[in-house]
Amino acid sequence: MASVFESFEVNPVKFQKQITMSKIKRLSMKASSIMKNKDKRARKIFTDIREAIAGTEQDFTTGSINRAIFLLAIPMVLEMMMESVFAVVDIFFVSRLGADAVATVGITESMVTIIYAIGIGLSMATTAIVSRRIGEKNPKGAAKAAFQSMLTGLFVSIMIAFPGMIYAQKLLKFMGASEVICTQMWGYTAVMLGGNAVIMLLFIINAVFRSAGDAAISMRVLWLANIINIILDPILIFGLGPFPELGVMGAAIATNTGRGVAVLYQLYLLFSGRGRVKFSLADITIDWITIKQLIKLSLGGIGQHIIATSSWIGLMRIISEFGSNVVAGYTIAIRIIIFSLLPSWGISNAAATLVGQNLGAGQPDRAEKSVWAVGKVNVIFMGIISLVLILIPSVFVRLFITDTEVIYHGAQSLRIVCYGFMSYGFGMVMVQALNGAGDTITPTRINFFCFWLLEIPLAYLLAISLGFAQPGVYYAIVIAETAMTLTAAYFFKRGKWKLKKV
Fold first, then answer.
1. I need a surface site. Which of 64, 161, 470, 502 has the fewest CB within 10 A?
2. Angle at 199 between CA 194 and CA 205, to 5 degrees
3. At residue 17, does pLDDT exceed 60?
4. Kind and range of the H or E element at 224?
5. Domain boundaries in the chain?
């Protein structure tokens, strides 16, 4: 009997080894599974990045909302960064010609702001209508609306072009330019205003591609424009090789040539049927009803841009009370802030496209979910950016200037304004969502209240009346941006935008 039980005896050492080996095997299999999943996720992310940059046919009214945001946001962010390169490159080369040349570019840019405002307004209207038609699975309607938008932009640009070329010198004189600029450098202004059609069309047609879901095409178009501008700028400004030395006017010709070639490429893509919006001869007609609708929608977008831009002028007037060093520091800080906000603006554009397409597909709930998701992404992104700028603001200011006092004031401005970055990032998404739905009037009213009726009076009160000096202006900016975000979120939450017909 004992022998029977003995046969069932287990060696404890051997048994312990078996258990240990079994645990190791299970842990090894678990680790292997985790690594495989991570590898799959990494490959998927890499594939999505490649797909976002290359651009592929996607239906953003179905499937994963997060993936839709990812595929739209990456090329839109890169596009916004490319847009900022134009000004940076021009200033980089023109600065070699002296202060008058830089001043010519600056004064002309202040006039071109009006063209940007109209172009952005028409782009917003285009996004609202084209994205809606795409969501309705009506590519013909999208093409028709796109052509009417281009036609409207071209008509407006012609009205600006001829007076701009003819009266370039008088316009510079009116803007307070020196005699040297008015008599010797007016060619830059004449070329920029005379060729404003390329700015207008570039904005509008890129909005067509973005709103149709072809954000990668918009990105590549600006890459092309920037590459040509970077090559031609030094050649035409300094007269390299067989080319004549054109000075500051060469920068205008280089910029317009780059944008002009990009517009031709856009037209080629539209007529060749390479994107979601395809032109045919039947689309080349005038539709006054659509044009009227575009103008009505664009007025809100134009108003938003003008209100936001002009508010900075009011703040600058208050800042100027505290001396040149403060003004210089604030100016540099604002340049850094605008550059930092461009990627966030690109992410916000994804919300406009998703809202328009999903409303067109009759899915308002999906449109709303998309906006909250985009808002979360933008808050995280702006949080990271703000953290860096708040911790080491002087590092970025030193890239522009070496004056110790200016660096101090610039860092102070940058740090305080960045406190509101997360709020502002979320607010941009809310505003763009309303614009994408075709409700451009509500954001205009919000901007008017927050930037004109709140920000400027509050800045004066804090800085001058209460004696907080320049920090009072910076805190007023944060408060106004937060008020804009809360107000926009309130109107978005109400949901009346879901009923907007375009």
1. 64
2. 135
3. no
4. helix 215-238
5. 68-286, 307-502
